[in-house]
Each structure stands twice: as structure tokens, then as C-alpha cells.
Amino acid sequence: MPDTSSYLNSLPAIFSEDPFLGQFLLAFEQVLTGLDAAKDEPKQGLEQTIANLSKLFDPSAIDTLFTDDEKTLKAFLQWLSGWTALSLRADWDTGQQQRFLAEIVPLYQRRGTKENLAQLLKIYTGLLPIIEEAPDRPFQIGVNSTVSSTISADTAQIGGGTPHRFRITVTMKSSSTDELARQRQIIQAIVDLQKPAHTYYELPILIRTDTMQIGSRSTVGVNTLLGSIPTA
């Protein structure tokens, strides 16, 4: 720490003759602009704190402010996520939490759209959802003639498609019943929060296998599987 405040350089030369004044101004310099190698608090001045204020709202840079305090960083990220009306998953590390916060704000520009919902589900679950809206396919014998109550490519519909309804298909690796229930709960919570209020949805969850399953994976170009599914 210097013996004399640099603030003396901004005063008339006559004030430099008094060594007490140089020591006295050190306290103000430490509080206002900071001192190199300061041993006492505050470690940085108000000007430095204000200059770094924007980093508190930049998820990609916030870790530079908490380099020695992982617990405080996690707590601050949780607080920051409250500004986005979403919660961070407890099993994410700080890097995943930072990436989520960095991506979520731009996604709000597309809130309520299929693209926004698909991206959110991918971020939260690591799965690649297939989101389909009910097709509007009139009853045509020989063209659309399969009578069914569920959404499919060849379902016959009398009076037009089911309004305000969509289906989200998610494929998971074989896992425990508890993990399946946990992922379903997460997906439903996200969809309920992000979907337009007047819409309804179906949520079939398929278990990933290495074979084609007629009736489960039989829509060519959508969910028919020949071979194994690449890792998301």
C-alpha cells in the first residue's frame, strides 16, 4: 500500500508539503477508487464496484466476481434465475446454470412458440422433443380413412382438426421408474408454464431401444427407428 495518496496530485502543490494530508487522503482513496495491494476492507473502491455492476447480470462473466466462493456463486445464480421466472435444477453444476441463464432471456422473445418450448425442454432435460400440432385433415375415403381419436399422420377427421391441441413426444434411454416419473414431472411443469393458456397437449414418453416398434415408432420421417438413436 502506498504511503501517500495519489489524490495529492490533483491538489495545489502547497498541500504536498504536509505528510499528514497524504496519509489522511489514503482512506478516501481506498473507499472511492481503491488502492493496489490494500490489506483492509474495502478491497476495491466504489468506482470499481460500479464499473463491475453489469457483470452481476451477465451469467457468462459472473463467476469472475465469486472466484473464491462457490457457495455464494450458486446462491447468487439461484437469485438471478428468479428474474426469469424459472428455477435452476439442483443437479446442474455452476457452468450449466450459467449457460441456462445466458440462453433463457433471448428465448423469452419466442415464448409460446413451438421452437421456444422445444429448446427449453432440451436445456432442462437433455432430451430432444418432437412437438406436433393436430393436423387439419378432412375425411377422405382412400386418402384419410383411418378412424382414430389420437393425433397421427393418417387420422381421419370429421369437421376439421382438434383445435388448440398438440402432442410432445420424448424418447428416453431405458431407466428406472423413478427417473421416468421425474423427467415427466419436469417436462409437464415446463410445458404448463410456457404453453399458451388455451391449449392442451398429450405427452407420450418412449423408451429408447435399438429396434423399430410398430405402433410406437412407425411414422416415417418422424419416429421410425432403424438402428440406434444418436446421443443428444
TrEMBL record:
Family annotation (InterPro entries): Tail_protein_I
One Pfam family it belongs to: Tail_P2_I
Highest taxon in the source lineage: Bacteria
Name of the protein in its database record: Phage tail protein I
Source organism: Phormidesmis priestleyi ULC007
